[in-house]
Amino acid sequence: MTAEPMRDWFDRAGVRVDPRRVLTDELDGGKVLFPARLIPYLGHRLVDRLDDEARAALVARHTYHYFAFTAHFETRVVNRATEMLANGRADVPLRRDVRFDAYKIYCDEAYHALYSFDVVRQLESANRVAALPYDFTPFLNRLDGISSDVMPRRGTLPQLLQVVVFETLVTTLLAELPNDPDLVGLVRETVRDHARDEGRHHAFFAHLFRELWAGLDPAARRETARCLPRLIGHSLRPDLRPARANLAAAGLTPAQVEEVVRDVYHPDSVRRGAREQAVQSVKLFRSCGVLDLPEGLDAFHEEGLL
Ligand SMILES: [Fe+2]
Ligand SMILES: [Fe+2]
Fold first, then answer.
1. Residue-range domain boundaries for the chain
2. How many Å lie between the centroid of ligand 2 and the Cα of residue 263?
3. Residues 248-277: pLDDT tens digits?
4. CA distances, 188 to each of 27, 34, 111, 184, 215 (Å)
5. pLDDT confidence tier of residue 247, bands split at 50, 70 and 90
6. Are 70 and 63 in contact (CB under 8 A)?
7. Are 277 and 164 in contact (CB under 8 A)?
């Protein structure tokens, strides 16, 4: 049985039906690129006293980073695993028609990456704030490091779990940006297009996880239970490197950058944010019995997700 949400893919997927989103002259009309409330450092006193131009550049670069991260994540994490599913290379038993759906998701994610890149290009040329160089590799290495720590000998399973985790999270940004009337249409509509596709992916990957979990032996289940919350935590923790780079580009000294980071990314508030955004994923894993294992319960507690 095909997961229902992917069945209408040819008629509903963004890559099949959505128009290219194009920037209009809304920037002159007072619309913003990103909601200030979702840029934690914008309200810090050291940032608050910067001039309007520097603050606008901070917002622009924060926006660029969101889309650059998306483009990298889709192509280098989601589609790395989706390709294995599509080509039948995952070394876990799965029903045959997973492959057909996986090819659809592969196309979706590639398109999400393309339009994320497109958004940055359009914004860069319109507001003349250049994007800073962005290196996704450290984030990816940490993600892969979690899996290889906890489950070094599980073949393709760790990479599948990475994607199950990310695809079943409902991030604040995907939930809030599409409905924010203050955003420029290019950003709002692009994120809305993306969120629609991700709603379908969410159902597919929740389904996939149930199937995966059902096929795991007890030892693999224990490792999976320990791995999942750490993957959730890493996926939802703010990446501080681009934040630091952005603050430095705005003229803050290294000591000031560290002060801002320390003040606005306090471990308690970071954990609280992760817990709120992980509710749906935790519910899924709980319903599958992951938290019935002592290893699972401990690991989810340790990550602050319960
Ligand atoms: Fe996506
Ligand atoms: Fe997705």
1. 4-302
2. 33
3. 999 999 999 999 999 999 999 899 989 998
4. 13, 9, 17, 6, 40
5. very high
6. no
7. no
% the chain with pLDDT above 70: 99
Q: Which ligand is nearest to the CA of 69?
A: 1
Q: How many helices (H) and strands (E) does the chain have?
A: 17, 0
For residue 30, name the pLDDT band (cuts at 50, 70, 90). confident
Tell me the ligand closest to 105's alpha carbon: 2
Note the pLDDT tens digit of each residue in 32-70.
999 999 999 999 999 999 999 999 999 999 999 999 999
**CA 123 to ligand 2 centroid distance, Å:** 24
**CATH classification code of 4-302:** 1.10.620.20
Calpha distance 161→199 (Å, rounded) = 18
Cα–Cα separations (whole angstroms), residue 7 to 61, 101, 102: 38, 8, 12
Going from the Cα of 205 to the center of ligand 2, the distance in angstroms, rounded, reads: 9
